[in-house]
Amino acid sequence: MAEETPKKYLLGNDAIAHACLEAGVDFVSGYPGTPSSEVVDKLRAQQDPWYYVEWSVNEKVAFENALAASWCGLRSIVTMKHVGLNVAADPLMTSAYTGTKGGFVVLSADDPFAHSSQNEQDSRMYAKFAQIPCLDPSSSQEAHDFAKTAFELSEKFSLPVLLRPTTRICHSKGDVLLGESSPSTRKGVFVKDPKQYVVIPAHTRPLHVALTKKQPEIAKYLVESGLNSAKIRGTKAVIAGGISNSFVEEVTPKDISLIKIGAYPIDGKWLADVLSKHTEVLVVEELMPVIEEAALQAQTSTIIHGKLDGYLPHEGEFSPALVASAIEKAGFGKNTYPASPEQAIVAVRPPILCAGCLHRSVFYAMRKVFKDGIFPSDIGCYTLGLQLGAVDTTICMGASITIGSGISHACPGTDVVSTIGDSTFLHTGINGLINAVYNNTNQTIIILDNRITAMTGHQPNPNTGITATGEPSPKISLEELVRACGVSFVETVDPYDLTYLLVTLREAKKHPGVKVIIAKQPCVIMNKRLGIKRNRFIVDTEKCTQCGACLKYGCPAIETDETGASKITALCTGCGVCADICPAGAIHRGGARQ
Amino acid sequence: MKKSFDVLIVGIGGQGTILASNVLGDACVIEGRHVRGAETHGMSQRGGSVETHIRIDGKFGPLIAPGTADLLIAFDVLEALRYRHFLKPDGTMVVSREMVVPTSVFSAKQPVPKMEDVEAELKSGTAKVILVDAAEIAVQAGNPLAANIVLLGAASHKLPLAAESLFEAVRRNVPPKTVSVNETAFRLGKEAV
Prior knowledge:
heterodimer, A: alpha/beta, Rossmann fold, 4 domains, seven-stranded mixed beta sheet, 36% helix, globular, B: alpha/beta, Pyruvate-ferredoxin Oxidoreductase, domain 3, six-stranded mixed beta sheet, 8 helices
């Protein structure tokens, strides 16, 4: 048996979670969002943790919970994806003024190339905006090391510290050297200090002055601590931020200097000094030109290349080959990567809703009843309803009901049917519902209730009945909640019962005002994990007329055989909706148990 | 020149590409070697096409450039075809003789691809193609879910890692109850090539 080596092959997010254990974290909160979710998932899965951990209802709530813990002297981390920071931006901006006590780390995971996001915003801009330090790791190891540093840095400057890993850090793996866990015995104490914590104008003005004063000191420290560094190797240099450093190290010739930016704010004097040792510099950073603008601001005679002169794109994620081509363009070295070979033409395989997913039958029924309807939707697995023609808009969390209201008021007489998941409804959907009722909107709202936050990895939410650590908690009643908002048309339906679903939708169509239909079925992935099994369905090929109605339903368990007749595969989870759709009555229960 | 041995593992969300990549990563750590990897999580799963990059001896970024991978391990012939441009001209692909036709082909009534045509297309390139009946061998080993480990066994001849390290990494990554089935799966996969 091979000996246990001190290094581990770890996901960036798992490395960050471990760093929290090493830092003796006391308080953990967050809202799930790819690519950030595994940090809290890992921390909540620990046996008998000494720290408090929660999934919050949204990022603003999560942020404020963790901020308060920091004010009580506890080491806290709050995690979210980049767009979640928009939701938490309100407390973020002012928490820089109030400052912090216990180390407070704000993890905002960016997603260049929008692998699983609605935009490619750059969280570094938030750090600049809020005037707080930002750490930008280049590998799984650095993600780990920087997470620990972030707690220390926060305590040193009494400020929130933004940790900004990108998708290719969060979901990359590497050999990582870990330290020992360091359980904390700290107890939180809130010491009243209204001048610090009550930001009335008279208090906030001096706080702003104090915040500005901290900036040069922070920038200087980030150089002294080696987070920003320069290896002078020639008269030309590449400056890189975050993961771009790993690409740059791989492809930059040995006679080109390497200037590594791991943290912000960048010390202007240091940067000017480093730049002035070079005649020409290429800035390599994904998304916004943060380093590039700092380099231009340094006002040296050095020529600066980057995004602003078209050497590199503003959008998407970088790769070694892309960086090599920019290096060649700048005349710093040769690009030895082959031209990308031709791609074979293969039928696309996008992610799709699972066989038996409740969303599919809802979308099918919606389109049947509301043929000319407008379908605002939201963020979740159900955004995949786009493929089924049942999603007309998706902009951000909670924006189904609100966009629906806007369309309904803007286009009177239009049937508007909004869809939103249970977790998203509790995140920011409920405000939109209250507003829709208050302002007499005409709209049908379908809450797709699968009792879990599915897309990000099945995290529990207030509708699940358990907390992040598996403790029982009161399960919220969506029906009562919706009624309390003033909705009188509230119907709960089983989306596998297609007939009743269609009847309910037709009923809703007739009624004016806000109608809420709660379509309830657990997520099929959770069912599988819980061992819930139904008998599969089969096609009677004698009866199948090959009309294609079941195929159009788009279920991954339905295919055709050699003869062209429909066939149900082992992916079937027994929801039975296809049997109701089949006009020939050729589909019936009778397949093997899953 | 690059010093890492670059492996791209491709398949369909849920087929076990991440577990397979963890085996390679752990085998590197067991041998005290550097390794980098990149995975597909989140929205890209749910039955979608997935790719995992593994750079054995990699010290830099996790991404493999098209035209430079040393080895392609594919859990599905259509996915092998989709990602074959990542291979260097004299690279090798180890492919499970398995074909899951994308649902969109049926719902949009497109022609359903035939296994023999896809195989012929794969073999028409310059890369070496090794097709493995991974599903069948996994059943022989005692569990159809072990097809990913069968494929790793088959690919082990091409990997710059000792078979013992891979064996140990398999043990570390599979559920405790399935260790012996997976050991058999790895061995049968190795012997199948």
